[in-house]
Specification:
The complex is a heterodimer of chains A (about 170) and B (about 160). With about 170 residues, chain A is mainly beta. Chain A contains four helices and ten strands. In chain A, a hairpin with a 2-residue loop joins strand 4 and strand 5. The chains are: A mainly beta (about 170), B mainly beta (about 160).
Chain lengths: ~170, ~160
């Protein structure tokens, strides 16, 4: 008897991705956890344009402005996320930190093709987590570094009608 | 509430008549071919998504799936009317697309292909227009909503 197809076993390892989920301007965003260096309160962070922690200087980034969302950063749950990529260190103020979550990579969904402009370089995809729709931020863009990716007109490629393209996972 | 079953759709081969779903947005009547409508159901709260794409600035969660919302009322510079509002899910070329429509329950009409006139939709993606109940009704090209306009009449 031949073996056909793939059968999921409870023991089969599931590829996962870790994110820090935050709230900003009424939406929820996920930052890849690998770049998170720390979380500070306003009192800890101070009010300067740079934050220095553990000998590293983090430049303040106004993510709400970059996303064109209105955020209330005066609340008690406001936190400063210290984040680093290979080349840049940034501090991002968010309204609330939801938590560190781990999601199966297959559950990361691409941004629907109807979103066709700049946002395609802002978000690497999305994930449904605890009843929330969480947009996966491109950290390079979030920190103001050129991600080397430009918005692509999706109209360039005609595609047949897909019943549920959003069910195709693996966008993280 | 209303679901277009494939088996009930008209034969494309003949193109003599079209089955269309007639609905309203901001009190204005529109039609769409039944095969371009997945379903009509009660509207639920949309989730805002930062976006620079015109009229695509939210998503809607249905069961375990999410789909973008096209703010057709904003494009028409009007406000959807009635309560409870309805959600028309379009079979867009890029995947399901939710559109908030008036509370008036849509109807299904049959129109003769020969009665469909070109244009009528202005700058809206349309397949033409037709007279239904004494009113000129634009037949929206839901598959191409948000794409460059190309008026098409296929008889």
């Amino acid at each position: 008897m031949g073996l056909r197809g793939r059968h999921n076993s409870p023991n089969m390892p599931v590829e996962t991705a870790s994110f820090l989920v935050v709230r900003l301007g009424g939406s929820y965003f996920a930052l890849p956890a690998a770049g998170v260096r720390g979380l500070l309160t306003q009192a800890e962070a101070g009010y300067e344009q740079v934050v220095t922690a553990m000998g590293t200087v983090y430049q303040l980034t106004d993510l709400a402005q970059r996303l064109s969302v209105v955020a209330d950063l005066s609340g008690p749950y406001m936190r400063m996320v210290l984040y680093s990529t290979e080349r840049i260190h940034g501090a991002i103020r968010v309204e609330q930190v939801v938590g560190l979550v781990e999601v199966a990579r297959k559950d990361c969904l691409p941004l629907p093709l109807q979103f066709q402009r700049d946002e395609r370089s802002w978000f690497g995809g999305m994930v449904l987590y605890a009843d929330l729709l969480v947009l996966i931020l491109n950290p390079l863009w979030a920190l103001g570094e050129s991600p080397g990716v430009t918005a692509v007109s999706v109209w360039q490629a005609e595609q047949p009608i897909a019943e549920t393209p959003i069910t195709v996972g693996g966008s993280c | 509430m209303l679901r277009a079953a494939r088996g009930q759709q008209q034969a494309h081969g003949t193109k003599r008549s079209w089955h269309v779903v007639v609905f309203s947005v901001g009190g204005m009547k529109f039609a769409a071919r039944t095969e371009e409508v997945v379903e009509v159901s009660p509207w639920t709260e949309a989730i805002p998504v930062p976006s620079r794409t015109p009229f695509v600035k939210a998503m809607m969660k249905r069961n375990n799936h999410v789909m973008p919302v096209y703010d057709f009322a904003a494009r028409l510079s009007c406000t959807v009317q009635g309560s409870p509002l309805l959600c028309l899910v379009a079979r867009h070329l890029d995947g399901p697309l939710a559109i908030c429509i008036d509370a008036d329950v849509p109807s299904i009409e049959t129109v003769e292909g020969t009665s469909i006139r070109p244009n009528g939709g202005g700058d809206i993606e349309s397949l033409g227009s037709v007279t239904i109940g004494g009113h000129e009704v634009v037949i929206l090209a839901l598959q191409r909503l948000g794409r460059p306009t190309q008026d098409t009449v296929t008889r």
